[in-house]
Design brief:
This protein is α/β, with parallel strands linked by helices. The chain contains 15 helices and 10 strands. It has 2 domains: 248 residues, TIM Barrel (Alpha-Beta Barrel), CATH 3.20.20.70; 65 residues, Four Helix Bundle (Hemerythrin (Met), subunit A) (Up-down Bundle), CATH 1.20.120.1460. β1, α2 and β2 form a beta-alpha-beta unit. The protein binds flavin mononucleotide. The site of flavin mononucleotide has 23 residues, from β2 and α9.
Length: 334
């Protein structure tokens, strides 16, 4: 378990939980680009752990720290048990998902629909906090459907703060639970950053991170300069990991340079890839997260093509990654 003050510091910049994207391999790549940022798992539902016994969902590598486990669910006791399992697995933080737009899955209610029941969210948080020593945090929206965010968000935050939650990330748009797909729900409801900024004024001691539509480190720095405590980046960090993360340690955390280049991150991935392959894994399970590493650089298309065409083949190994890397033109030579 990493010290709480270190996690709080790491939360100045985090990579968002993203199902099917921020799996353990993706997180190792991100960690090689930024040693300071906070990384989130994909959402794991509490029922999958507690009723389903799917403990493999908690697997991660030690180099991922600081790393937070995101849970989905709405049953306080089940979430408490799942949080305990997360703590036992060594996670640094447990985060409750109150933002995912799918309101029901087989395993029950979770996600953004819980914005309608802040008292239940508070009970869930209280139960999780009682169950673990590590920090419990919340990721939420500004509201759902026809709710008025101006009323709903402060009420929601007040209720979770009242049960001891000290850190929240707000995806600064509503989720429209009727009529939009989860993907549309990440783009169509308008962003309201000002509302999130005002929440910092209302709850000055809450550690507040903003999420949604942030596509550059400059934009992230602006939010921090304006007084927010943290910035969480999702899709941009996934699609252009080097652009978002390689300068983060220096620019966001004040660590002396030099920045880790995309090439260095690839080199650092090679032993991890070797280990994955020798334990029976496939190359493309890792390289699928690396396709955007050189986005915008000469040779990026070749990099993507070599990996996309070759990495699924049964005998594909680290030499394919090295060959793809040789297609990249270094800035000095470009
Ligand atoms: C493929 C994908 C999967 C996601 N899965 C989750 C999830 O499991 N839990 C969650 O809280 N948010 C999830 N999100 C939402 C992101 O965490 C984030 O809130 C959203 O993408 C907005 O941030 P961005 O504009 O920086 O991408 C997902 C987003 C994407 C693109």
């Amino acid at each position: 378990m990493t010290d709480k003050s270190l996690i709080t510091k790491a939360a100045r910049l985090s990579v968002a939980p993203m199902m099917d994207w921020t799996d353990r391999h993706c997180r190792v790549l991100h960690r090689h680009l930024s040693s300071e940022s906070l990384l989130y798992t994909e959402m794991v539902t509490a029922p999958a752990l507690v009723r389903g016994g799917a403990m493999h969902l908690l697997d991660y590598s030690p180099e991922e720290h600081p790393v937070a486990l995101q849970l989905g669910g709405s049953d306080p006791q089940e979430l408490a048990q799942a949080a305990r399992l997360g703590q036992e697995a060594g996670y640094d933080e447990i985060n409750l998902n109150v933002g995912c737009p799918s309101d029901r899955v087989q395993s029950g209610t979770f996600g953004a629909v819980l914005m309608k029941d802040p008292a239940l969210v508070a009970r869930c948080c209280a139960a999780m906090r009682r169950a673990v020593n590590i920090e419990v945090t919340v990721k939420c929206r500004i509201g759902v459907d026809d709710q008025d965010p101006e009323e709903v968000l402060p009420e929601f935050l007040a209720q979770v703060i009242a049960v001891g939650i000290e850190r929240v990330t707000v995806h600064a748009r509503k989720a429209w639970l009727r009529g939009l797909s989860p993907k549309e729900n990440r783009d169509i409801p308008p962003l309201d950053y000002d509302l999130v900024m005002r929440m910092k004024g209302l709850f000055p001691s809450l550690h507040l991170s903003v999420n949604g539509g942030i596509t550059s480190l400059v934009q992230a720095e602006e939010f921090l300069d304006r007084g927010l405590d943290g910035v969480m980046i999702g899709r941009a960090a996934y699609h252009q990991p080097a652009d978002l993360l390689s300068a983060a340690d220096r620019r966001v955390f004040g660590r002396p340079g030099p920045d880790t280049t995309a090439e260095q991150a690839v080199q650092k991935m090679l032993p991890y890839i070797e280990a994955h392959l020798s334990s029976g894994g496939r190359l493309n399970q890792i390289t699928r997260h690396m396709l955007g590493l050189f986005a915008g650089r000469p040779g990026a298309r070749h990099w993507r093509r070599v990996l996309s065409e070759g990495a699924h083949k049964p005998d594909a190994g680290p030499e394919l990654v090295e060959r793809a890397l040789s297609e990249i033109v270094t800035p000095a030579a470009a």
